[in-house]
Amino acid sequence: MESLRYPPKPRPGDRVAVVSPSAGLPAIFPHVYELGLRRLREEFGLEPVEFPTTRVMGADPRDRARDLTAAFADPTITAVLATVGGDDLITVTPHLDDAVLRANPKPYFGYSDNTNLLNHLHRLGIVAYHGGSVLVHLGRPGTPHPLTLDSLRAALFTPGWYDLIPAPEWGDQPNDWRDPATLAAEPVMFPGTGWRWQGPARVVRGRTWGGNLEILHWLLATDRIGAVADHAGEVLLIETSEELPSATEVYRILRDLGERGLLGGFPAVLVGRAKAWDFDRPHTMEQRRAYADEQRAAVIRALNEYRPDAVVVFDVDFGHTDPQLIIPYGGEIVVDAVGRRISVRY
Q1: Domain residues for 197?
Q2: Going by DSSP bridges, is the β-strand pair 341-345/161-164 parallel, antiparallel, or unpaired?
Q3: What is the number of other CB atoms lying within 10 angstroms of the CB of residue 343?
Q4: CB 257 within 8 A of CB 263
Q5: Alpha-helical segments (H) within 146-284
Q6: Last residue within a domain, chosen from 110, 140, 160
Q7: Does a structural domain hold residue 195?
Q8: Residue 294: partners with Cβ closer than 8 Å, 6 or more residues away
Q9: What pLDDT score was predicted for residue 235?
């Protein structure tokens, strides 16, 4: 792996690429997408630039890769933002022009299926950003969450250190995009529960790697994860999606990372708050708590087997729940289990 470097940051007034390297959901939910674009202009002062596949569902992976490469190559574009996730970006990354990406590093923002691209940029030595979706976060019903806005603004424009904070409220029950009327109502939120710390009281400083756990499993299967030595000493980020993987699956994926020799190399692990509700599984609060407890136990079991001295922080808001904090991917992080603080360098 090449030495990781932070790309230059955009400034208000700049042109930024808005791309759909995974699912072209702007084609299906244009009302949500247009709201996200408007907020990108009004809240951040950035001018979104669309590419041919941004509003296309089922675009050929080669065409999506061509758009991504063009976004990085364009000297007038200073950052690249994903519209949303999906499930097949793994078919896109082989078609990217890596020479162009290396020669024109830019901040890339995305999560979920975008773990494929975040990992790809990591292997090219480019720091990217886990989080920030034009549909999900900028197009959030009601108003964008203030923690998400503050974190995204800092990651976009401000170099230096940023303290993550536990969210005073959280939610995992989004409004139904199929009904445009729901954009006027705030999503259901619950009182914050703070972070849960596990492991020794020490301070870990390193670089980040990881992302959506299900996608990490695909990357393992396709041998697109760097050498064990490339990840030793990094801080692992893991979060799960609206597919609600079982605790057994979570344990088995982490076990696979352990058998690969990766899990034992992470001195600290951040675990995103577990999303435990979806439209086809509208769990009660009691069911959500049970799901999160079972997932937490699965993570602890795997770490006890492969890295029992790791510092672990659960319920950090960087995954598929609301709000979402932006975390640099391959960037620097300090996990302070003494002061119970997490700081990232944007």
Answers
A1: 164-345
A2: antiparallel
A3: 15
A4: yes
A5: 146-157, 213-221, 228-231, 247-259
A6: 160
A7: yes
A8: 246, 247
A9: 98
Q: What is the mean pLDDT of the chain?
A: 97
Domain boundary among 160, 182, 200: 160
Q: Residue 107: name the closest of 39, 35, 10, 186 by CA.
A: 10
Average pLDDT over residues 316-338: 98
Beta pairing, strands 332-336 & 341-345: antiparallel
Bridge partners (DSSP) listed for residue 80:
17, 108
Q: How far apart are CA 68 and CA 101, in angstroms?
A: 9
How many domains, in total, are found in the chain?
2
Are 128 and 178 part of one and the same domain? no
Which residue, 98, 100, 136, is CA-closest to 120? 98
* Residue 1, pLDDT score: 55
Please check the confidence at residue 2 and state whether its pLDDT lies above 80.
no
In our burial notation (b when 16+ CB lie closer than 10 A, e otherwise), range 291-303 reads: bbebbbebbbebb
For 269-302, the pLDDT digits (tens) are 999 999 999 999 999 999 999 999 999 999 999 9
Burial (Cβ within 10 Å: 0-12, 13-18, ≥19) of residue 90: buried
Q: How many residues does the chain have?
A: 346
pTM more than 0.90 = yes
Domain co-membership, 323 together with 192: yes
**CATH code for position 78:** 3.40.50.10740
Q: Which two tokens stand for residue 191?
A: 């009182």
Q: How confident is the model at residue 3 (pLDDT cuts 50, 70, 90)?
A: confident
- Residue 235 pairs in a beta bridge with 208, 268
17: tokens are 């690429």
Residue 10 lies in a domain: no
Burial 308-330 (b: 16+ CB within 10 A, else e): eebbbbbbbbbbbbbbbbbbbbb
Q: Residues with Cβ < 8 Å from 135, sequence gap 6 or more? A: 25, 26, 29, 32, 33, 36, 83, 84, 177
Do 122 and 204 belong to one domain? no
Q: Does 149 share its domain with 171? A: no
pLDDT, tens digit, for every residue of 95-132?
A: 999 999 999 999 999 999 999 999 999 999 999 999 99
